[in-house]
Structures are given as C-alpha cells and as structure tokens.
Design a protein that fits this description.
15% strand, 442 residues, disordered N terminus, 10 helices, eight-stranded parallel barrel, alpha/beta, single chain
Length: 442
Amino acid sequence: MNWMNLRRWLSMVMLAAALVACGGGDDGEEPQPKPEPTPTPNPTPNPDPNPDLPLVTPEYFSTGFMKGSTMSFASFLEGYGMQYREGGKETDPYFSMKNHGANIVRLQLNYEAFPKFEGQTIDWADYKAVVKDAKRAKSNQMDLLLTLKPDADSYTESTTHHNIVPAAWAALSETELGDKLYEWVYETLVKLAEQEEIYPRVVAVGNEVNIGFLKPSASAASDGARTGRLLKRGFEAVRAYAAKYNPHVKTMLHIADPSKIHSYAKAIVGAGGSDFDLIGVSWYPGTNIGHKLGSFQSIRQMAQICKSDYQAEAVILETAYSFTTGNNAAGQWMGDWCQNAYNYPDWNDAENAVNYTPAKQRAWLKALAEELKAGGGAGVITWGTESLSDVITDTAGSRQYGFYTYPAAWANGSTWENNSYWDFTNQNNLHEGIDWMKDVAE
C-alpha cells in the first residue's frame, strides 16, 4: 500500500469509528451536544396527571405560621380609581403586604354573583376577579387561602340574610345538593390548577358555616347535622383534587365566634364532616358583633383544645382592631357616609384616643398572634384591612357619594375603613399597624 492509499484507508477507518461512537447515520451532519435542561425553581403539577407518571408537588412560599389579610377589595377599589400609597407614593398593596411580613392572602370565590346595587356591579368574589387577585398574590410570593362559598346571600334596603342555597340548586334534594357541591368544589379547583396554575395552600369550604350552610330559605335555622353531611361532600371534593394536583393542601372548617366551636364542630363531626385540618375562627370581640370565648379561658386554650378534641389547628381567620376613632360627635362615621359595622375597642371608650392608634392596632394583633401560636395555632388573617374609604373626590376637591364594596343596607361606602392598614385620614398611606406581621415569626 502506497502512502496515498494508506492515508485514504486511515481516513475511512476514523470516519467509521466516529459514526459508530455517535450513533450517526449517513446524512453527513455533525452530531450536536444535548442542551442542558432548564431548572424549574417552583415546579407545578402536570395539568393532565397520568397515574403512571410521578406527581410534581407545587411548592408553597411558606409552610410556617400564616400571617395575612383578606385582599378581595383591593383590585375592586383600584378599579374605581382609588389609590393605595406608602410614603406618599402610589404602591401595589400586594407588594406592601409582602414587604411588611405577610406570607398569605385570603380570597373568597362565590358560586352566585352578588346582586347589583344602584346599577353597580360588585364582582370581587367572581371567578375572573379571584384569578386576577390570586395571580397578584403569587407574583408577590404570597400563598393563597381560598374560601369557596357555594351559598348565596340576600340583601334588601333594610335586611341581610346569609348562606342560603343558590337559586340554581333550590329544587335539589339534600343528596343531590351534596353531589352538586362536590362537583362545583372539585371542578373549580381543577380549573384553577389546569388553566391558571393556581394552587391554594388552604381551602375553606363555606364561610362561617354555623350561621348557616346552603340553608333552604332565609328564615331556616342553622342545622349542624345537615351542614356536616354537606361539608363531608365538600371536603371529599378537596381531597379528590388534592390527590391529583395539590397533595399538601389543607382543608378548613370556618366558624364564627369561639364560643360556638364546640356545639357546631361536634354536630358537624358527628354527621361525618370531620375531614378538616384547620378550624378557622372569626373573632370580633366587643359589643358591635359580640363574640365571646365561651368555655375557653383564653385564645391559647382555644387553640390547644382544637388540637386535642378535633385534631385540627386553629386559625384566626377573621379579626380586626380599629386604628382610629370616629370623626364626628356620634363617633360612628368615618371617611364616607357609611356607618361602620365594627369598632373595637368599644366606641363608648372613644374619648380615650390612646386606644385607637396604628401602634395599638399593631400591638393588639401581635399579642393575639403570639397567644394563638403558643397554643399550637397555625395563623392569623385579618378581615377587611385592605379597605379604603369608598369616596370619590373630583378634580375640584368635591366629595362625591362612593360605592359598595360589600352589599349591605348601611349606605354607599365602606363599613370597615376604620380597621384598615391604609389611613384614609392621610391620603390612604400605609400605617404601622400592618407591621404586626413583621413582629411575629413564621
């Protein structure tokens, strides 16, 4: 073999070896290196789970003590031109919440829309609004506590009735009603997961269910055993969703007034509705709403007994403390023409202004959270603390009638701005009351 033939032979051998090593064909293309996989810091479940594939668990931003507020009203108010400020500058209220210690927000999703009032649409509990707000929370790295409210409320000029079966379900038997509840809860949670990539950390089925749950009429008495049978189906729906999409989501039973925990929880558990991980409690002391501790000696003991008797962690799901006194002689009106629904401490102490300050609000909420936490409780979430005075001021500085955020018979405007974290007396700037969440460790 001459030198030229030797070189040709060696080239052919080297090419053949390269093709074998790369598994290549005869297309003459250079083999390309495989791209590195893109890391996924917050994996979400496969939107169409397959039992043969491993489930990817959604990661929550926190698994510690829950600290937060409802935020249902914020986007609604901004839609009317209201502004949240911090240090004199307009600021995203969700950013402010996160920046001042919150790790979760509560939103409420209704099956039936609120009725229109004076031509105004109150849509903060509708599906589209809740999705928008849940995504605002997520983008600010806060988790979601979602209240799914299947029942309806009725409002007139002078009365309010809560937790009635919606018109579309009114003709159903109890069994059929349970099936419809299961379907709505399951399909809503699956839709949020598949279409929106929203995975709540907590799901409460019903709102203050001891007041009533899917009552057959406005005048019907609250029925704990019937509520328990229906909640059983609601909790089953959450568990079925959890098995496919969100295995660590917690279920919540929501009861108004600590003194009602034993009577209603026992009735609900006895009827089969015991599959809850948390007991959410509305706690509004004082004469306006008048919640009591009942047989509990303290909030700490309440949390301890929730664990021992019901194997559930207690959460203060609703509470508030007024950061300012009234601004007229009667002490009942604040930044608008709407009478306030809750004032704590009692307004009969209004002359003692030291009890109504942002600093007092901060201290009271911190003490409440620390006491609950010491008893093994899982969190404190305030209600309505995103409220603003619902008054529109025109360019000439003239105050105009406001609008409803929560349907009620009181008047146009907010019933709750005296309990907010944003000070209506100071151009809706954030005040220090919100910093109780910084003061309490997760």
